[in-house]
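Apologies for my clumsy wording, but could you write out the amino acids of a protein and the tokens describing how it folds?
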Amino acid sequence: MKTINSATGAVVSREIQQQMGLGSFLRKAFEEGIALKKQYGEDRVFDFSLGNPILEPPPQFYHEMQRLISNPIPHMHGYMVNAGYPETRAEIASHLAKETGLPFTMDDIIMSAGAGGGIAITLRALLDRGDEVIIFAPYFPEYLPYVANRSAVAKIVPADSNFFPDLEALERAITPRTKVIIVNSPNNPSGAVYPEDNLRDMGRIARAKGAVFGTQIFILSDEAYRKLVYDGRKCPYIFGCHPQTISVTSYSKDLSLPGERIGYVALNPECNERTELAAAISFCQRALGFVNAPALMQRIVGRLQQACVAIGEYQRKRDFLYQRLIEMGYSVVKPQGTFYMFPKSPVDDIQFTDELRKKLVLTVPGTAFGTSGYFRIAFCVEEQVLEGSLTGFREVAHKYGLC
């Protein structure tokens, strides 16, 4: 028997209907890809819609998995403390301490069901109804329902021409209700890696505004693509920029394990509230139904802090597609990381991605990421998809006078 919402007569809540509508572009592209592949054949559809890693996990992952299979640990599939296995958290803390020079301990680490789960439990711990969360555009669309789940308010702040946060706009956006600033670098969808000076100035603004309003403003850094950076770059850590900082990451991209849902939350050792926060975030793991991060994956990833997929393969794909699009007349800021690029659209971005779809090239309009006038390409695809798409990109570019 269906349960009807007495206020609206609808089966599904109005809030969820609204959130589903906001995510409709990504869902539509994914579903259209399935339908078009059935109609035309997989080899004739060039799907850049989703960031599903194409590379296999590195050899070290399979080595660790085989080790556990061959020498199972007693009760290794059972419950553990909500924050995760102490030995896994200790290995991650040791890695972060070496990387940052800060005194991380296992008590600063909470294992999570991927970066998405980590962000969800962290916001659940931090936010009250009506609190404000600043999000830089372009942004990962699921930030919005994560914030809405707490009846908090998302405030969107634009990026500059390089897709770096506009700090003057940030300063204007902060109010006494501001509780969290979400940072995503390397950025999905633009591929921008925020400079360390930009992050330090962001921390300075957060401290200054907090002092004026008598509040604490946390910077929550989504670092799911931290290791996927190109041209010899390093992605700056957020911890040295502000005491009230929290990093969330996953192994979905750098180990090609998106379906395993494994990541962690790291609290800045210089944050005076970290003990209270760690307890709250661990509790929210239960309150939101995650209970704990997957047990088997915790046993594996703890030993893989230095491991990564072959980043050069993604850089090669980036260079190939970037150069071809530039030659066709597209305007593209060259991605510094991730496996996305975010070209300008010569017309309305929804109209433009529809034109590409007619050529069986599937991309996502920038409107889905809070920045109209652009479109996202996920270039973590097979070679034949990259090469086969060029005719469609060229024909649509010619139609709109780019070449």
